[in-house]
Amino acid sequence: MKHLKILIFILTICNTLFSVGEAGAIFLLISPGAAAQGTGEANVARVDDAYSSYYNPAALAFQTKRSIAGMHVNWLKQLVPDLYYEYIGFAMPQGNIGGIGGHLIFLSLGDQQATDEVGNYLGSFSSYMWALDAAYGTKITNNSALGLGFKVYHQKLADAAVAGESGKGKPYSTDFAFDISYLFKYKKEIYDFGDNDFIYNENLISTINSYVKYRIGLSIANIGPAITFIDEDQADPAPTNMRLGLFANLYKDEFSKFNVMVDMQKLLVAKYPSMDWDGDGLIGGGPGTSSFKNSEGQNEGSYSDPWYKAWATAWLDDWYYGGDLDWDGDKKIGGFYWVDGYNSDTFQFTGAIDNIIDEEEMIQEGAIPENLQSQLDGELAEYSSFDGTQTEGAYKEMGSGADRSFSNEFNEVILNTGFEFWYTDSFVLRCGYIYDNEGDIKNPTFGAGLRFGGYGFDFGYTAGSKSHPRSNSLFFSISAEI
Description:
- The chain has helices at residues 2-17, 34-38, 52-55, 160-163, 307-313, 370-375, 400-403, 407-410; strands at residues 67-73, 84-93, 99-115, 121-139, 144-156, 172-192, 206-223, 241-252, 256-267, 271-272, 275-276, 303-304, 324-325, 336-338, 342-343, 348-349, 362-364, 381-383, 396-398, 414-423, 427-436, 441-452, 455-462, 473-481.
- The protein is mainly beta.
- It has a 14-stranded antiparallel beta barrel with strand order 1-2-3-4-5-6-7-8-9-20-21-22-23-24.
- It has two domains: 2-270 and 412-481, monomeric porin ompg (Porin), CATH 2.40.160; 283-304 and 321-403, no CATH class.
- Strand 22 (441-452) and strand 23 (455-462) form a beta hairpin.
């Protein structure tokens, strides 16, 4: 019971942070850096500093100055008052062989209260998560580079002494993962022809300026084995996340420049709920049985694909694979029919057509009156029974597999868009937008930054409605060339 409460707390935070709760260790997906927060978290193609080991290790190959950076933020303070996030990272160029970098992330989940099975207070404990990362980037051409990263991360949900569940698992987990990335840079060069403006002569040409016109970045982070706490059969996949981004300079003169950046993110995690794969209307052996395998030996209970398979199946699991969903967990598809505007107690149509599933409109399987059957056009939609948590709703089970489409996959795609306006190289204004349809995160962002004497100070702000847990978040970060 104690561990169940803790896990519910963690999952609540994870589902608030991101679009889906399909993976574990979601804290690895919190975007560090106030500059990135100001541009809607779009940074995989823009990054060129001590945040490279997180966003795109390949960017380390192009850096020419050593740097460090750090950020502190009270994360989701409207949801949990003592939740905070820390980041510190570095980048060190290594000449012709590329560059190295790394970072440390620490997320404190605050203090928790432990209770026994009947609710008696047993004391308090702290929960936290951390990740330690090392990265390397090297050029493969003058304009492109590859990057690799390796990280160890730890999640502590409770004290072992408090848990009281010896032999049933552990309230903490230590795991590892890899990152791979790519970066392409296109530079625009400006030439000076001297006194021979109308005569092309290679011997007279000298480059007086060059700058990055656009970049394309790709990163696949957190590639690793599943994460286990209490039950190995309920292990969560690592949060393998793909970022594909574009950075472009749209305007540049002697004093100012204007940049735009766009990232697309998707979790490369394939996780299947309990569903009827063979079409016999049962999950495994059906109600009253313990097996989730069907007559063909296929698992019809919930499970996830291993990481090396999920890279491909993550684009198919929500629409192409599987069958009808067992929403209520009774190991049987269907059980109730819904007829909008029909009262199952009086066996009469009320005419109240409102497209809302009400409990009195649900008819148990096998109890459909003949007069009702004759009055209905088309096939009845079969739904699961109420699970006790809904007052006006039920989940469609029969035919739910056919209702899925490829557009469901795009519901999990997160779009990050950002803009920067620089005045000289000392002052910058930023704005952006986070669009996460499935996670209901549609927040504008703003930011600003200063650079002088090798130091950088950045500010980021996430706006939105007052009720949204991510709104009104302030981010501050500092960086320095060393």
